[in-house]
Each structure stands twice: as structure tokens, then as C-alpha cells.
């Protein structure tokens, strides 16, 4: 079993994240816009957490998504990245419901932006990867 398989599940799920990333990356601007739209729609209170230029925030989000996918097979690098992200998000006191809303907004955005070019297998794999990432960012040991 590869390190990626250990982090996000079975081989098929790991491959689904890797193989779909180029399609995700090609639509990163649309995906990012959709993500924040759905996040703020479901959790309007989190919009106030974003105090910097929102264009920059969108770029940061898509860069982090890229870094996460690139480091999934490198547990030490992924741990360093998630440690840094956790530190950056700690002061915001994000609730478990808000973290879940972020996962749900991301998954909804994938389906909305990629439409028929996003399989059920890819959906499940990305959800598992996003849940793992959020768990690490939120400081859970699961």
C-alpha cells in the first residue's frame, strides 16, 4: 500500500484524485468562485473571517488545493502543510459545522463546475481527501 493509499484510502480513490486533478486545476478560477459562493450561502457568518483582498484569497485557496494534492504522497510534507494551515486557522475558532460546510461547499463546487466530467468515484475520493485534510487542519487525530 502506498503512502497516499494510507492517507486517503484504497488505490482506486488515490488514483481518482490524481487523475482528476488536471481537470480540477483547469477550472480552478470557476471552482474557487463556486466554493466561496456555496460556503457563504450555507454559512454567512464565515464571510467576515476573510479580511484581505478576496482575489488574493481565491488565489491562495487554489494554490493550497494544488499543494495538498502534490503532497498527498509525501506525508511529512503534508503534515508540515497542514500544521501551517492549522496555525493560520486556529485564531478563527472554526467550528466543526463550519469545517463540514467547507467540505460540502467544495464537493458541491466540483459537481457544479465539472458536471458530467466528475465521476461518483472521483467525488468519493475527493470527499475523503478533503475530510482528511480538514481533520488535520482542525487538529483531530482521526
Automatic annotation (TrEMBL):
- Keyword Heme, does the record have it? yes
| InterPro entries to which the protein is assigned, alphabetical | Globin (IPR000971), Globin-like_sf (IPR009050), Globin/Proto (IPR012292)
Q: Which UniProt keywords apply?
A: Heme, Iron, Metal-binding, Oxygen transport, Transport
**Globin domain segment(s):** 7-142
Domain of life (superkingdom): Bacteria
| Family the UniProt entry places it in | Belongs to the globin family.
- State what protein this is by name: Globin
Organism field: Parasedimentitalea denitrificans
